[in-house]
Amino acid sequence: MRSFTYNKADDVAAAVQEVSANQEAKFIAGGTNLLDLMKIDVMKPRHLIDITHLALKTIEETEDGGLRLGALATNADTAYNEQVEKRYPLLSHAILAGATGQLRNMATDGGNLLQRTRCYYFYDTDTPCNKREPGSGCSAIKGYNRDLAILGTSEYCIATHPSDMAVALAALEAKIRVTGPDGDRVIPIAEFHRLPGDTPHIDSNLQPNEIITAIDLPAKGFANHYTYMKLRDRASYAFALVSVAAALEMDGDTIKEARIALGGVAHKPWRLPAAEAMLSDQKATKENFRMVAEAYLEGAKGYGHNDFKIELAKRAVVRALQQALEMEVKS
Amino acid sequence: MGNNSVTSPPKSSVKLHINGEQKELQLAPWTSLLDALREHLNLTGTKKGCDHGQCGACTVLVDGKRINSCLTLAVMQQDKEITTIEGLAKDGELHPVQQAFIDHDAFQCGYCTPGQICSVIGLVNEGKAKSLDDIRDLMSGNVCRCGAYVNIVKVVQEALERSESK
Ligand SMILES: Cc1cc2nc3c(=O)[nH]c(=O)nc-3n(C[C@H](O)[C@H](O)[C@H](O)COP(=O)(O)OP(=O)(O)OC[C@H]3O[C@@H](n4cnc5c(N)ncnc54)[C@H](O)[C@@H]3O)c2cc1C
Ligand code: SF4
Ligand code: FES
Ligand code: FES
């Protein structure tokens, strides 16, 4: 690891000021992604600002009946939080489908959103990669791309976003609260991550001098009909080939509202509200589920090794919706 | 970690509370907790496997929670209660989970064992494992190249039963 200087931030304003003053500074929270990438020289900050002492660890109800997750709350404390387990079990399950007991004790909710892609070439500094080194080329498009994206790709990058938590947050329409030099703003999760386009080195719309302070969950948690389905090469401790966060609000056997977000298929959690709306006021049948699945994968493009993901994703959408529908309602 | 630096920023004083003792070290900021334990405190019971959060050999307990000591900086772990494999035996008696690893023959080469033991203790503290599948899932952050998993699962079952009967 390259040398760097270190400072512990005492409050949000000081952290923002410190990061704004130094282009080569980075925040460190759990450290599980940043240190991993610094050890292999993919990330090279010259100064680390430790934000783990900021008072952003609480999980509390908001005025509109939702729940606010502090950006420094750990993934474990979030997944096992009583309110999250009860009202947002989709989120709890998605977090627990990722990483390991040890890592979830370290990883924070803010850091989880900003974890970087798991594209093998991004990790391999001997190969070209536009995300790691803008302009060097993309090794994955003509290389081994089994894990990579099938939706929203560009000729510059076909990486996926690896977070499980973010997929559930997309289905739940979470809002990301951030603070920058000019004050606070709120970014809907749908606009937080971005597509690679011709600037794949930029993962999200968060500015380098902004800090995430919290993640707000709206009141509606879909606790009666939900599933987080993660398809991967082994049952535990692997990143998703395809994942689906599915949630339904039912009125008898009619769907009132459906939410679907896909992971492992794009540079951001993939959600299409217009396609979801096709299910509103419709019967919950396999045919209708397949119709939505087709709409979700419209325009999908395989790159050889990952062609199988297109049909896999469609079947996963259908099965996840069926599981969400049929789950035992615990009252 | 890092020895490829040319101009090093000055080392700073880092106070760590480890196995009930206060230690003060002069460390560069990039020293991982794992390297601080092994290279600076001679607590070599904690093992380095991958150095990337993938194998669990470096698992220690911080304020009772299991973490990977390779993916955190020593300087970030001040004011916390760190317990390593060396701190588990009390008054010459092995910790029950240590004893259970012997009783169930839950290791071969032993390289993963200190991390496994700390992980089992952390898992019991968490109180979330209810079934065999839960145990396998929640222990998946500890890899054993010798494949002692079958007996490690027995250790976890015994540890969970003991904690319930308390
Ligand atoms: C072996 C392994 C397996 C894993 N498996 C999975 C998996 O299956 N699914 C999954 O979803 N994840 C997985 N992960 C990734 C893990 O979830 C992330 O590394 C973790 O969530 C990152 O959080 P952190 O707090 O440690 O972030 P850090 O490493 O501290 O930071 C990550 C980035 O976020 C920035 N940052 C952190 N907090 C803030 C903030 N509040 N405001 C602004 N910027 C901030 C940092 O500057 C840095 O750039 C795995 C990781 C490892 C090592
Ligand atoms: S897909 Fe993106 S991250 Fe992977 S090699 Fe291409 S540019 Fe780099
Ligand atoms: S050495 Fe830390 S997880 Fe492998
Ligand atoms: S006993 Fe050899 S690696 Fe587990």
Quick description:
The complex is a heterodimer of chains A (331) and B (166). Helices cover 29% and strands 19% of the residues of chain A. Chain A has helices at residues 12-21, 34-39, 75-79, 82-87, 89-96, 101-106, 109-114, 120-123, 165-171, 189-192, 273-277, 286-296, 308-326; strands at 5-8, 25-28, 47-50, 59-61, 67-70, 175-180, 183-188, 211-217, 226-231, 242-251, 254-263.
Question: Keyphrases for this structure?
Answer:
heterodimer; A: 331 residues; alpha+beta; Uridine Diphospho-n-acetylenolpyruvylglucosamine Reductase, domain 2; Enolase-like, domain 1; 5-stranded antiparallel beta sheet; 3-stranded parallel beta sheet; 19% strand; B: 166 residues; Ubiquitin-like (UB roll); DNA polymerase, domain 1; 2 domains; 5-stranded mixed beta sheet; 5 helices; 15% strand; binds flavin-adenine dinucleotide; binds iron/sulfur cluster; binds FE2/S2 (inorganic) cluster
